[in-house]
Automatic annotation (TrEMBL):
SUPFAM superfamilies: Composite domain of metallo-dependent hydrolases, Metallo-dependent hydrolases. Pfam families: Amidohydro_1. Keywords: Signal. This is Amidohydrolase-related domain-containing protein. It comes from Exidia glandulosa HHB12029. GO terms for molecular function: hydrolase activity, acting on carbon-nitrogen (but not peptide) bonds.
Length: 409
């Protein structure tokens, strides 16, 4: 779908979104958790520059009500007015982190206070922790969390040997029937998409044929496939199979033009996680980050969509050697690091902002719901001081954050 079609779709759909807005009855436990936020309120933001998800707009007025961006408010509405006149303020869609591993309310609050309003969780220590974040905080004014199922891998692989990995969740025989059943079981347990692993050549992992079968089984159920990659060859296997997204970048050599154009033809999207690549490179191999930067430049030149993801995690609690897992990466602040890294890799500030707003919304299938500043969409918004369309570091200058119209405090 072209971006222009995205906006046409949202313009048509916003009345239906308004009509379908649900007011969920919260139980006492949910209300108790709301000590960190306030209820949704009506807000008028006047004279604020707007990045609408695509472009920088001149100073405008934006209205919030009942958790949504709305086209207007009654003059008699009891609204909070924020007037940006004389101030250098920019309103943006709430940010996505397209690859993270939150497991606690504190993780989500850290995301929220840094303007991250939607999190794509790419595996928890246990599925129960992942699903608890979705179920317990869906209406708390904390970030929306979407989760993968168990990671698709084989018995004895590096991932299967991690503490807490359920032994009964591996793909043992690799038959079409087993893989089909495995994918269905992830969907039944609440997966929003499927994650799989393609490690370095020679490692215990799914074969190219098994990857293809997994992609087909997922697609037949409307599930995207998100493939962890660690080497040039693993990217090639993922692209050949038609995975939806590749996460991370090769450690051994940069993606070249041929592979990048193959990814473009296959419709495969890149989530480079440069923040993780930089952190890993500083520990293991100084040249690793330069290889990653070159890969992103090549992918951009091939017009492969690039999404901002950080690999934010708290692996220290597992007691695993740092060479086995990524170093700890912060929940929230790292998203701003990722935007800066993407600009260093050659994206313009506008392109970097799109990678964390409209593009993940579009490619994760969350439109018309969020990712832009338009009437009818969720009031997931970030107000910053300065103009991040010119200077990406400005995204750190956060004045206010709203999630579903709830102001984060």
């Amino acid at each position: 779908m072209m971006l222009s079609s995205f906006f046409v779709l949202m313009a048509v759909a916003w009345p239906a979104v308004l009509a379908c807005q649900q007011h969920v009855q919260r139980d006492a436990a949910s209300l108790a958790r709301r000590t960190i936020v306030k209820e949704p309120e009506s807000v008028i933001l006047k004279n604020v520059r707007v990045f609408d998800g695509i472009a920088r707009l001149p100073p405008s007025t934006v209205y919030l009500s009942s958790g949504l961006i709305v086209p207007f408010l009654s003059p008699h509405a009891n609204a909070t007015v924020i007037d940006g006149a004389g101030q250098d303020l920019t309103l943006l869609p709430g940010f996505f982190d397209a690859h993270a591993h939150p497991e606690t309310t504190a993780d989500l609050l850290s995301f929220a206070r840094n303007g991250v309003t939607t999190v794509m969780d790419m595996a928890c220590s246990t599925r129960a922790e992942c699903l608890a974040l979705v179920r317990e905080h869906a209406d708390d004014g904390l970030p929306s969390v979407f989760v993968s199922g168990a990671t698709a891998t084989v018995p004895g692989s590096a991932n299967a040997n991690l503490p807490g990995f359920p032994a009964n969740e591996t793909i043992a025989t690799g038959t079409r029937e087993e893989i089909d059943s495995w994918v269905q079981s992830q969907l039944d347990k609440g997966a929003s998409y499927i994650k799989l692993i393609q490690d370095r050549p020679g490692q215990l992992q799914l074969s190219p044929e098994e990857v293809q079968t997994l992609v087909n089984a997922s697609a037949s159920r409307g599930l995207q496939t998100n493939c962890h990659v660690a080497a040039y060859d693993s990217v090639g296997i993922a692209v050949e199979a038609g995975v939806s997204m590749v996460h991370h970048l090769p450690f051994d050599k940069s993606i070249d033009a041929d592979l990048a154009h193959s990814a473009k033809r296959a419709g495969t999207i890149s989530v480079p996680t440069l923040t993780m690549m930089r952190a890993f490179g500083a520990i293991l191999a100084p040249g690793m980050y330069d290889i990653a930067l070159e890969s992103v430049r090549t992918l951009r030149e091939a017009d492969v969509p690039i999404l901002a993801g950080t690999d934010a995690n708290a692996v220290n609690k597992l007691g695993i050697p740092i060479a086995t897992l990524p170093p700890p990466i912060s929940f929230g602040p790292s998203l701003h690091d990722e935007l800066a890294n993407l600009v260093e890799a050659g994206l313009t500030p506008l392109e970097a902002l799109r990678s964390a707003t409209v593009l993940p919304s579009l490619h994760f299938g969350l439109t018309p719901d969020r990712g832009a500043v338009l009437p009818g969409l969720r009031a997931d918004l970030v107000l910053v001081e300065g103009d991040p369309t010119k200077d990406i570091s400005v995204t750190r200058n956060i004045r206010k954050v709203w999630i579903g119209g709830v102001e984060v405090v």
